[in-house]
Write a structure and sequence with these properties.
Elements: H1 13-27, H2 31-50, H3 57-69, E1 76-82, E2 85-90, H4 94-97, H5 103-117, E3 121-127, E4 136-142, E5 166-171, H6 179-186, E6 192-196, H7 200-206, E7 214-217, E8 226-227, H8 232-246, E9 250-254, H9 256-262, H10 265-282, E10 285-290, H11 297-306, E11 308-309
Helix pairs in contact: 1-2, 2-5, 3-5, 8-10
Amino acid sequence: MSENANPFFVMPGSALLDLREELELIEDEKAKETLARYGYRAGVGLIRSLDVDVSSFAQFKDVLPQLWSETGLSRMIIKETEEDCITVAFEDSIEAKHGRKCDFTRGYLAGMVSTLLKRKYDAQETECIADGKYRCVHILRPVEGLTKEGRPIVEGERLHKLEPGYSYLLESEDPYAGFDIFLDHISHGSKGMWISREYPEKVKKKFDIGDCPFIWLSYERDIKYAREPTNIPLIYAEVKGFLDDSDGGIVLLSGLEYMMSQNTFLKVLKFLQLLNENVAVKDALLLIPLSPEALSSREVKMLERELRVYRPKPLT
């Protein structure tokens, strides 16, 4: 390996199965999508590590099977290759062999194809050996024109034009401040994640927020999406993971006052500083609604020095 090469390793099949079992214990039905997202990031990382570049779709058709053979996941057969619909089949599969759908595989495949073609693709498994089929079939299509949740992207400019790469402090007494901006961005195609002190099912009823990932700040241990507000390292890790995978996404942190009431101010400030750095690197957006009356004037000033203050005009 040359000095400039990026090291990588091929995960053993047993390790992939162990990872899936751990995720199923923690997340149950959500495990398959988590595994697919992880696979997507792995596929992107593989192409970037190998520094592979293709100059045409014809070259892509030759390169993809060669690269896939290095993953050790399965043998690939390209069935149809049009740029708007790519169909591939696998005659064997480590995942399907053990009775599971090929979720990591479809994510890995989508990550590789998206990076090679420099265009976002989504993969859907239409046939799987785990269902008794003699092969696994995946269809990849570009996702332009739809939001992550499958809704049509709104045409025209956003109502709220915030500069990417910055975190914004929304000083307001409105408990739902920031949701209009958040919805404005995801309806125009941005990936979104939201964090709330209010029970998420109530928020979903109030706003057409779709299936964006979310966190409920709560000590309720029987609900899988609840996170204790004192577990800042876990919350940070989940938001960072979203930012790493969102390609300029948007995060709404609604519940900052509650987090501060459960932690020291400096601990939460450090958390925001770390998020702010990640937002800058990933060219993303972070929205933080805040009631200034809930904090001391000194604490508000410290937050204002770290974040951009944004006061949106009332919608007419």
